[in-house]
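Quick one, T. Sequence first:
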Amino acid sequence: MSEAVKAVCLLSGGLDSSTCLAYALREGYQAHALSFDYGQRHRVELAAAARVAAKLGAAEHRVVKIDLRAMGGSALTSDLPVPKDRGWEEMGQGIPATYVPARNTIFLSFALAWAEALGASDIFIGVNAIDYSGYPDCRPEYIEAFERMANLATQAGVERGVRYRIHTPLIRLSKAEIVRLAVDLGVDLRLTHSCYDPAEDGGPCGGCDSCLLRRKGFEEAGIADPLESAR
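Structure tokens:
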């Protein structure tokens, strides 16, 4: 694109969202990164998000504080145990305890609000529906439904005919394909964080679903994970 178009990019600091931000920047967007301090037990991811946003050259990085611990219902926002060492078949059955009720709906709503305030009509989110833990708000039909809602619920959409687009460049990629894309885009994977239940020093536990899926992706891509090497 000849002139940089503003976009809001959701950024957790993990492999997928970091790759998604890098993708948006490669496509020529002026990327405004948005992260959330929502009471997550793996709050260390916010430091990763800040590192990634700065390294990749996001136009701006904001962290919004909301308290989803008040709602509970998730191992990530309560004292429920994080599932560990699950097999691939088990991961493919049901919705895990790490699902945070309505998280992507809440995050996308904030992204939509910021996009409207910025005069942007593009939102990027690194959801994936192939190698993932079964979250219902990562599926293509959910994203399509939210996009329809966004175009009905905003002043920009109603009065000015702005058409909001939710970009999901990773949604149909395997984790190995995401790893390869991240390397191709120049993402410094040492800066990312994927673990749901990190140690006190912030290091990955190695056994939660997110750690296992990350390891699977690197192994299948034939690329060494710099975080594993550091361990």
